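Quick question about two entries, pasted in order.
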Amino acid sequence: MEASDIMDKRRWTLLIVGVAVALVVILAVVFWPWVRLWLPHPNLITAWFRYLVIDLNIARWGPVATLLLVAIIELVWALNLGRRSNAFDRHWTRLERMHSRELEVLNQEVALLKEERRALRGELELREDLISEEKARLWTRFEGLQRASGLPRELPAGTDPSSGVLRSREVLPDATDLPADLRGEWRQIISQLERIDTISSVSGRKPQSALQAQQRTDELLRLGSACYRLGQYERALRHYNKAAELAPVDAAALINRAVVNQELGRPQSALQDLDRALKSGENAWAYLYRGIVREQLGEAKRAQEDYGKAIRMDGSLAEAYYRRGLLYAEMGEHDKAFQDQNRVLELQPRNAAAFTARGVARAALGDSQWGLNDLDLGCSHAPTSYRAFYERARVRARLQMDEEALVDLERVIELEPSFGPAYLARGDVYVQMGEHAKAIADFDRAIELQPKNPAVYYARGQARAAMREYRHAIEDYEHALDLDPGHARALACRGSAREKIGEYAEAIHDLDRAVALDPNLAIAYYNRGLAYGSLGEYDRASRDLNKAVELDPSLSSQIQASTGLMAD
């Protein structure tokens, strides 16, 4: 407790005592007539008061006595204050000595802390040097593995506008997968680099210059790229998130994160990153990948515009020509597709995917032999890519080269056993060869891999109908129509199967719907003509059969055979 608090407390004590005495005197004077009755010797007290007032003449010496009393009180008060002042000074001196000792102790502790800080800083710098050496060793080993495997080395992100940007399978479809032993070594190196990165981020100092920040961003981009190549997309995304936080306008970080989000099935997140990258500056790769995302979202026109912008920005960007060529082929503009793939091969003469795409375009334009030549080159340049063999098998099947097509499809299934379209294509070849049981087995496998694909159910229905399993065929057509209610051919074939089992009214109903969906579907008119003929409505049958021949002259021989049977 401080000296001022003690003095205040004593002042209040004296004041309270004085007030109490005054109250007692006042009460004694006021209530004297009653109080005196209770006293043991009231006359004695009365005589004492008379002595004071009358005999001693209190009126004469009273003021003097009062002044004397006040002087005594002041003297006592002054002595008390002096004593208290000395105590306060002693207390203050004691506090100052304690404060001086505490300051000395604190100064010693601060000096020790500074010394420890210098030691820790030295240790940290030494550790950072060791970490840098270990990181450099790991990256050197990583790059050595890349060279040994024939993979291109990732360039630092600051060297040119497209460096550090991922090449996804959408633009590099023939990229080979890493061998198992190489994948194991990559994973080990990446884990060590990630552990070092985690330790550095927790205990290390943040980058203090733009160069350090760029170096840190480059390391994160390289880690993300390595994880992406291993197929560890969530792990890659974590690195790209850190890179984007460190460099919010870095185009490579935003584009790469968009590529990973696209792989993870998050197209809207990918679009947001690509838009951000383009806001910070036009980038051909950002336009290219935005076109790919928009194409997958069904926005073909906008995707085509983005591919065009990428090509205008960088006329040597072969990947943009390749993607635009694929889009043209999907839109049925095979001549434009052929031109784009030609440009790709001018820029990259050994691009297997471009040979494959150009071969498909040539075959679609009717130049099947040149198309097969391109597809042969695609297969030879990428012998481990199933896509080239698949496309060559489809062209060979259209040319009735069934055995060669089967060889290609066997190779496709060997390279990619879970590729459903290969089983569908092989089943179609077996149907073409009349081996319907084998075809149905392939269609069963295709359905296991692609249960939501109506084309597979339709194909199996065709095979079952060819084996005269009409009710099973009807079930398959119904599955196809459940998945695609606008499948006109499935309706036409279900109508034909119903006609074969005598359900003529249901058959004609299905065929009417098929004609309404596709007025140029010759097989629908042909099957409805047969159904009308079975009902004896020959005029309607004749009109439908004539319409079928008008739309598809190749049906004339079948119509002659069918009318001959009906006549018999």
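Here is the second entry:
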Amino acid sequence: MLSTSERHGQLTPLAAGLALTLATGATAGAGPNSTSIPSTGQDLSIQLTAPADGAVVPVPPGSIDITGRATVGEAPDTPTNLLYVLDVSSSTEDPQGLDCNADGTVDVLDDFNAAGAYGEVLDCEVQGVLSLNQSLAGSADVAAGLIVFARDAATADIDPAVPGDQVFATSVDADANGNGLPDIDEVARSLRNGLPPTILPDLPIGVEEFAPKVVTNGTDFSAPLAAIYDAFEPLAEYRNIAYFLTDGFQTATAGIAPALILADELARLGVQVNTYSVGPNGSGCDAGAADIRLALLAQIADMTGGTCTEIRDPSQLGSAIAGAVPVGLDRVEVDGSTVDVNAVGDFAARFTCPASGGIVTVTAVAFADDADPVTGAQTSIAADLSLDCGTAANTPPLADAGPDQTLECASPDGTQVTLNGGGSSDPDDDPLDYLWSSAVFGSADGVSITRPFPIGSSSVLLTVTDDDGEQDDDSLLVTVRDTLAPDLTPPPDLTLTCASTGGTSADIGTATVTDACDAAPAVSNDAPALFSTGDTLVTWTATDSAGNTASAVQTVSVVGDGPTQVDATATPDQLWPPNHELVPVTIAAAATSACDATVACRIVAVSSNESGTNACSARGDGHRNGDHSEENGDQGRGGGDGCGEGNRKRNATGGQDWIIDGDLTLRLRAERDGRGEGRDYVIEIACEDAAGNIGTTEVTVSVTHDQGKHGKR
């Protein structure tokens, strides 16, 4: 009979954030629990093996290992026997140089059977067995044996401590000779494939430990199938699984029929054979291959309810075979998190009690590999157990009122501020009550509240209370400030007509002002009582209650109609005698203006009724010899033309008849045409006030023809 051993824990931690539910109402129980898989008729089963239902977990807080087994077909508590069946024919010598341990380097560590050749196919087969066996370490009620085959097969002696051939070790990690290595590993490392004598002379094909067994070179699948049947036939009431590894195919067609018969017998016995086609020269896993020899490996797996796996790169065999799960099982979840499952369906998870303690239910669910292609629905079965996590001491909550807040004033009625205590927490995950208090608004409940705050700094206190009445406080400072100036618009610019020389009064209007926080900012301006002629810039200023100021400018313009009366006289206003000299003339001008008591006057133009600058003629001017007689006004009888002296004096003064030599002074030439009526000089005077308004007048200075009693003028 198969012996059992105590399980040793090789555990897989649960993902962080394990979802837990308090135990209420009916539960599935620890199991074993089973349900039928509709597509195959097999039972899907699960059992939680440790800890016991209702176990007490030390707190606060405590952790415990959850272990169980999920199976398809047999019940989870059925003992399991495994057979590793390895092809040791000479073809497993080639290729060599394979990285069987997948560490990136081909070296002595890839020589798993210590035969002197690194990385043969056989080395990779041995490494696959070692990986699978290691993944099962600690699994309860699991025993293992080993068969080698080529043309024929031999069952290895697996126990060095018991006389005679022992097909199965007491467990996968049994170490009967106490050398620190599992017995099954020692046997696997002693396999030989008949290396040429140049490496190890006369080395047979077979197994050396613990009793040497030799097989004949070649490949025949019926021989190992028969050995599998012989090993499992006495153990039919247990779960029996074989792992069949070969790099070749059935060489003789005569062996095909016996192999199929044996596969059928194994199926009847309830033995599952999982086959592996290893390397590029293997038969593959096509059960419908035209060459029946190539289809045989897949057919053996199909007939016995196993799987056929093709591993073209032998260095990948270890990870593939160690990662195998029971056929028909998809996965296992513990409290919603997927956990690792080994080849016999064992799983483990680390459970940590919640800080709050209490009775907690842990649930494991096994899912069949029968997902509906449309809906994804799968057959599943659950097992659960209750754990007593005790009653943890209450831990006070932690209040968090949030950071201090500084805001710009938004309204004269107060600035709305949101207070949020969502950062508060309770180590025991207790629900919290929130109470806000402040001199501004009194008190208010809620995680988050919104209240108006005035300008200035205000303190706010948050108090949180847990279910046990324990409290914690946190405070923050709310500062509302007004840093923005009012929005000021001055009245429109204004143009006035001058009213008096003392200035002009005016209603200049009212500025418009708004402010975010001050409903009525103070407004002022620097306008004078009376506006002088010209442009005056009036500065308007608005100041809010926080002292922020804004300024704007209005232009007030005062204009006038100019001087209303301009009077002027010339001294002298007559020039005599007409001696061709430039005579100084002074203008006296006076003007009045509504806007300017002081008006500036000046000569702006001079004109004469006699064209040209030389008015003397051949007829004389009546002043010199040959000119007109001063006494009687008659034409002189002298023979000269009268122009000689005049031309000389004119040339001496640049030939001009007038020269303006001051604002109101000029010189006029005392000269007239002796044949005319006399000369009149018209002098134009302009007077300008401070606003630039101008008034004009004219004054006449005459040079008479003569001064006789009967003169023309």
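Reply: The chain is about 10% helix and 35% strand. The longest helix spans residues 121-135. Hope that helps.
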